[in-house]
Amino acid sequence: MSMRDLQGWIFDLDGTLTLAQHDFAAIRRELGVPSDSDILTYIAGLPAAEATAMKAELDQIELRLAQEVEAAPGAVELIRYLHQQGRRLGILTRNLRCVAISTLQHLDVLDCFAPEDVLGREEAAPKPHPEGIELLLQRWQLSPAQSVMVGDFHFDLQTGRAAGSNTCLVHPQNQWPELADWHAVDCRNLLALL
């Protein structure tokens, strides 16, 4: 299937539609998470009271970072183009939904997304679990083959693969060619492919 035929477009947010701004090493240090641990997995393994406190701390960090967000090259144009073409658009992020909504508003593309199609870590199991894609496809009444998961990290590609969707890596280097059906250096390059 050609990318032009895809009806459902699911995007990661940070580092895909926005310039990467999360210094995960610094966030781990601020939270006291071991340097080799995934932050969400680490928090999930804590006793309930500690997990709740650390989640609240992480939420504050993410809300602070959302105020400094910048669009990635071509991101706004890509979203506007797909929206005008009548494609279904979703966000699947390991971030908070309210942060994603704030980011999309800041980028001036929130109107391109149905509110229920913006999924954060509390609306679906965090990537690489495929639940978020499955929820969106069910809502859109599309098959996995009619959709693509677009992201800048292997979690995004693994999520797409697990859901049976197509995958597109948006990153300067094609780091995980075995997981990506397509590769674009940035959103501007991806738009040019359409």
UniProtKB/TrEMBL annotation:
Q: Which GO terms describe its molecular function?
A: hydrolase activity
Tell me yes or no: is Repressor among this UniProt entry's keywords.
Answer: no
List the Gene3D superfamilies. Answer: 1.10.260.80, HAD superfamily/HAD-like (3.40.50.1000)
Q: Does the keyword Nucleus apply?
A: no
Query: Which keywords does UniProt give here?
Result: Hydrolase
Q: Which SUPFAM superfamilies match?
A: HAD-like
Q: Which Pfam families match?
A: Hydrolase
NCBIfam families assigned: HAD-SF-IA-v3
Q: What is this protein called?
A: HAD family hydrolase
Give the organism the record lists. Answer: Pseudomonas neustonica
